[in-house]
Every structure is written in structure tokens, then in C-alpha cells.
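Hi support team,

I submitted a single chain yesterday and got back a structure, but I'm not sure I'm reading the C-alpha cell output correctly. Could someone confirm the output below corresponds to the sequence I sent? I've pasted both exactly as they appear in my results page.

Thanks,
R.
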Amino acid sequence: MGFFSKTFSKLKEGLTKTRDNIVSQIKTIIATKTSIDDDFLEQLEEILLSADVGTTTTESIISGLRVRAKEDGFQTTDEVMKMLRTEILNLLPTKNINENGNTPIPFVIMIVGVNGVGKTTTIGKLAHNFTTDGKKVLIAAADTFRAAANEQLTIWAQRANVEIVQQERGADPGAVVFDALSSAIARKMDVLLIDTAGRLHTNTNLMEELKKIRRVLQKIIPDTPNEVFLVIDA
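Hi R., thanks for writing in. Yes, this is the structure output for that exact sequence:
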């Protein structure tokens, strides 16, 4: 779908300032440190954590740099940017879900993010753009925690002229997702947009809930969700 490339281009443009800031900080410590020692790695770790890279990912990157520096004999910081790029690429999935050139039907997008960033608003915009592009869209109201979440999502669904699958507040998000994907398949929908409750990546229980939603989806279609959109600011 052409919309995905347009959306990614806008996201990339919007994150340029953040990226440049992180790169600038890393280049600063590279310029002030000549060797890849514990002090250098600690400063690099602080930069990554302050950029919300996440504890697990940051630890993996730092551990990888430490091993590469030792095994490959890198002692100076000259090769750090190249090494850092390699470690990050190693963390990214290598499987292309569209290897055969066909877009899966339905194309499942899970929307995640912390509280208040505008996930519901983003879903409304996505639903509008997809329908304008001639796609049949279904929304799954899997944010069953926040008060009035269903009501707000219903308003956006009506504005975009799309249908919504929802249950009562406090229901199991996994059950909502199961019903929604089953319905999307039966009704031959092009796109399924899944709203989720706001959460911080440091809250283990809520992060486990996202994993559960993913497992529920994969019981029906193994490769789903096809995309996970992290909303930073709607």
C-alpha cells in the first residue's frame, strides 16, 4: 500500500531532530574519549537510555559493543559509529512480511504508546486515509482500561465511516482482538487497526499484556500484527 511509505516518510522527517540530537551526543563523547573503556560505555548507555531506547535494548547494544571491541580488537572510538549501527541492525527483524510482493489481507496494525500521546486520534486519521484510498477498514477497541476510550474511538470510527469491534470496559483486550481479527477475515476487510491502552515500557505487567495480544493474533494468523505503530505525538 502506498500509504505506508508516505506515513514512514512523515515519521522519518518528524524524528530527524531527535536522531540528530542523539548522534550529536554520541559524537561528542567519541571526540572526548579515545578508548572504548567502561567509562565510555557508561556514557553511551546514559545517552541511549535518555533517548528512551529502553533498558533491554540498550543493554543488548552495550553488551554487543563490549564483545565486538574485545573480539575484533577495537580499542579506539574511531569505529564506534559503525559498530553501533551494526548492533542496532542486528536487533531489527530480517524477515520481510511482504516477500512475495503481496499485501496480507487483512493488514493488521497494532497501535501502541504511552498515555496521552494520541493513539486514538492517530487511529482516526489512519482510518480516514485508508478509506479515502478505497480500503475496507475495521477498528478493534482493545483499550478496555481507560474510561471513555470506546466512546472516543466510536466517534472517530463514525467520522471515518468505518466499523468498530468493542466490548465493555474492563474486558480482556485479547478477547476483543480475537473477535476483531476473526470478523475482519470473515468480512474480507483490507485493514484492521488495533487500539491498545497507554503504557510505559517500564511497566512489566502492561508490556506482558501487549505480548498476549500478539499471541492471540498469531493463533489466527501467524505473521500478525503486520505492523506495530509507536505513537509519539499525534
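A quick pointer for reading it: The chain has nine helices and five strands. Let us know if anything else looks off.

Best,
Support desk
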